[in-house]
């Protein structure tokens, strides 16, 4: 049946959204417990533009919510997959999986409603764990010293293939035909999930958008904790004003290195700013003159450099000089002279619960050797389970899969150089990586993008914006109106 003929004969949402008309999906190794279907009409969602969707307000969205619960042997925790299906007359013939954030396998409505509004059948999974983004404390340990490895394994990878199978099955049953193409879209944790899919389940999706992917999981969490480790070691908690003033000084020194002073630092590789030159100089903090401290400057400098062992050995990458460090280097101050470290649960959970397996581990008295040992223990125990950093994605390539990823230089949680490192490692195995590692036109028409475009969502004009260049090329200003695409080009660094 052609799509036009299908739409002309399509049933209404209410008549199609009936659980009895949707057979239970069959998932190898899983036990399907229940399936419920509920029509949802006139749904609205005030939101901010995220990922690839270009609307900030969604109104009058209709869809069928099919909720499937299942379990896997070895774990007594149920897993929930939700499939949102637009009315048959509005379906674009495509299926999409939506990823999570932090420790959560799903971001909920903010990542499912936008593609439903665009006509996709959309599936998400809770991964069998609580949906708390910033903490895994509810599910990591069976008891102190005993990680719930079965649950961690299911959450980290198995649920992703399950989502694809369940979502496609429900989509096929609901519309009476299979989706013509399938896509995965995720950022951060969702990007890690996308990479994991390409590496382990190459048949699950035709196209994968993996943004700011939280790969190298066992490596980058120590980068996230490192600023606080430095504060503990030096017995100095950097006040927010000092931290922000150091960041601003670096930004002001390096903003113009791309040829244009515009509030965008697009060439961090050229930024050779030495923060040690700030020591002893004054900065303004809420109207009061303060002095840059040796401890504060060195902590921020080392945060940019990234974790190092006591003997200086490289452990992982640091953050861009203009990254907002208010999460990873956060402190609480009663005044500017009395500050304490404000622990960040994302990284603290990793080191306390996943690695040390001890929720009472005192993070404030770790030596650098202790810290380095924890890093190595985390890599040894979890790299193959969760890090999603295997560079061999040849099976995904061979079956025609396409992947698109980007990573912001100012990422405040996941060091962007980890993504560059992964791309380079893939390229070492396959020099033609850019043939598939660059989506809909690419997947469905074979038209590969050589650059992407940033746009102002209040004035979507194809002539305005900035190019996002295909790595390793970088953006270069060549003159003219800084809001126009024609004022920039992509060049090799």
UniProtKB/TrEMBL annotation:
Gene3D superfamilies linked: alpha/beta hydrolase
EC number(s) per entry: 3.1.1.-
Source domain of life: Eukaryota
InterPro entries for this protein: AB_hydrolase_fold (IPR029058), Tannase/feruloyl_esterase (IPR011118)
One Pfam family cited in the UniProt record for this chain: Tannase
Keyword match Hydrolase: yes
Range of residues in the leader sequence: none
UniProtKB keywords: Calcium, Disulfide bond, Hydrolase, Metal-binding, Serine esterase, Signal
Family: Belongs to the tannase family.
Identification of the protein by name: Carboxylic ester hydrolase
Native organism: Aureobasidium pullulans EXF-150
């Amino acid at each position: 049946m052609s799509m036009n003929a299908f739409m002309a004969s399509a049933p209404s949402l209410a008549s199609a959204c009936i659980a009895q008309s949707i057979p239970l999906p069959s998932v190898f190794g899983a036990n399907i417990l229940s399936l419920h279907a509920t029509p949802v009409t006139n749904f609205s969602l005030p939101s901010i533009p995220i990922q690839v969707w270009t609307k900030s307000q969604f109104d009058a969205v209709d869809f069928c919510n099919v909720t499937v619960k299942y379990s896997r042997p070895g774990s007594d925790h149920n897993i929930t997959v939700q499939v949102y299906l637009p009315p048959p007359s509005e379906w674009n013939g495509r299926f999409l999986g939506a990823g999570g954030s932090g420790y959560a396998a799903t971001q909920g409505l903010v990542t499912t409603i936008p593609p439903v509004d665009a006509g996709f059948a959309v599936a998400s999974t809770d991964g069998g764990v609580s949906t708390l983004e910033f903490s895994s404390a509810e599910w990591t340990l069976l008891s102190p010293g005993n990680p719930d490895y079965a649950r961690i394994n299911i959450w980290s990878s198995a649920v992703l293939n399950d989502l694809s199978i369940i979502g496609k099955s429900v989509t096929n049953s609901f519309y009476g035909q299979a989706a013509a193409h399938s896509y995965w879209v995720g950022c951060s944790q969702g990007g890690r999930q996308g990479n994991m899919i390409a590496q382990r389940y190459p048949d699950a999706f035709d196209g994968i958008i993996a943004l700011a992917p939280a790969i190298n999981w066992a490596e980058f969490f120590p980068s996230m904790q490192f600023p606080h480790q430095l504060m503990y070691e030096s017995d100095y908690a950097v006040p927010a004003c000092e931290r922000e003033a150091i960041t601003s000084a670096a930004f002001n020194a390096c903003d113009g290195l791309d040829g244009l002073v515009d509030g965008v630092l697009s060439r961090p590789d050229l930024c050779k700013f030495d923060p040690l030159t700030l020591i002893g100089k004054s900065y303004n903090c809420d109207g009061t003159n303060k002095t840059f401290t040796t401890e504060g400057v060195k902590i921020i400098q080392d945060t940019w450099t990234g974790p190092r062992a006591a003997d200086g050995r490289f452990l992982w990458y640091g953050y861009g000089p203009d990254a907002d460090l208010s999460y990873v280097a956060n402190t609480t101050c009663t005044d500017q002279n009395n500050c304490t470290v404000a622990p960040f649960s994302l990284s603290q959970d990793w080191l306390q619960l996943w690695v040390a397996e001890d929720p009472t581990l005192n993070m404030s008295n770790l030596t650098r050797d202790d810290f380095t040992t924890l890093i190595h223990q985390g890599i040894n125990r979890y790299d193959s389970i969760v890090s999603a950093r295997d560079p061999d994605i040849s099976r995904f390539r061979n079956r025609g899969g396409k992947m698109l990823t980007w990573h912001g230089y100012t990422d405040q949680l996941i060091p962007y150089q980890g993504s560059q490192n992964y791309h380079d490692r893939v390229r070492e195995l396959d020099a033609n990586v850019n043939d598939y590692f660059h989506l809909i036109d690419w997947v469905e028409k074979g038209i590969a993008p050589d650059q992407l475009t940033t746009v102002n969502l209040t004035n979507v004009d194809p002539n305005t914006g900035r190019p996002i260049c295909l790595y390793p090329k970088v953006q270069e200003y060549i003159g003219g109106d800084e809001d126009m695409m024609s004022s920039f080009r992509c060049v090799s660094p």
